[in-house]
């Protein structure tokens, strides 16, 4: 069995299986994306998030250390800023999460800092994602969540292709331009480029455990993003106004100065690019990677 086949079948909490992967192939570094990520779900099912995100990460670190692989790029999140009192969020802001999902990210960040503190051979970059959206411009690679999406753009795209009747907007009474929450949406291609820049930065001998925001530095409201998607797709998106979700912040967007300066990275795509590429994927693949009519995969 090849390494790629082993990885496709792998749960990070299965230490023996993970050890076989590292025994079969020498790795220079690891990009750690694996984890559950729905804010609302984490509020209702915190133990699942603690088990999956924290235990899986601990076992990954143990296996990496055992095989002498001590370079890591970790997928953290802007949720570690909680409800920031001001914006944009800089990497030096106080950290305070408002939901169990965010707490798992913050705890893992602390694990990383402790790892490097105990052993300077560990070189770690923590990337605090803001809100990744979009798809590959080719239309062949895109997001295909199982069941009802937890994030804005996959929900919008499923409404646009007729899989869902309307978009539920969670909260329209925020103190924002139109009452809906404001986020920093970043194109997935820009996000991918940020990871490449982070991997290159790990070769810097001065790197210990460092953190960078990955965002655009601009805030966009839910309704502004919906309008941009309607323009890109030519589809009207029916709306249903719902209550605020537990754990959601009002306005969050990034300061990207540090990433621009130290990683030589900057987001290149705006929300119109994001919506164009998301619709390109959705229109070519209305049921994602599954068969027509199958939304349960």
Task: Give the quaternary arrangement of the chains.
Answer: single chain
Helix content: 25-40%
Strand content: 5-15%
The parts where pLDDT drops under 50 for at least 5 residues are none
Rounded mean pLDDT is 93
Please give the largest β-sheet. Answer: 4 strands, parallel
Please state the CA-atom Rg, rounded to the nearest Å. 19 Å
Query: Helix segment count?
Result: 10
* Order of helical and strand elements: HHEHHEHEEHEEEHEEHEHH
Distance between the termini: 25 Å
Strand order of the largest sheet: 1-2-3-8
Strand element count: 10
Question: Top keywords for this entry?
Answer:
single chain, 297 residues, two-stranded parallel sheet
Describe it:
This protein has 297 residues and is of the alpha/beta class. The chain contains ten helices and ten strands. The protein has helices at residues 3-8, 15-24, 39-44, 46-66, 100-118, 152-160, 188-201, 222-233, 257-262, 271-284, and strands at 30-32, 71-77, 123-129, 131-133, 167-170, 182-183, 185-187, 209-214, 220-221, 239-242. Helix 8 (222-233) crosses helix 10. The radius of gyration is 19 Å and the shape is globular. The relative contact order is 0.16.
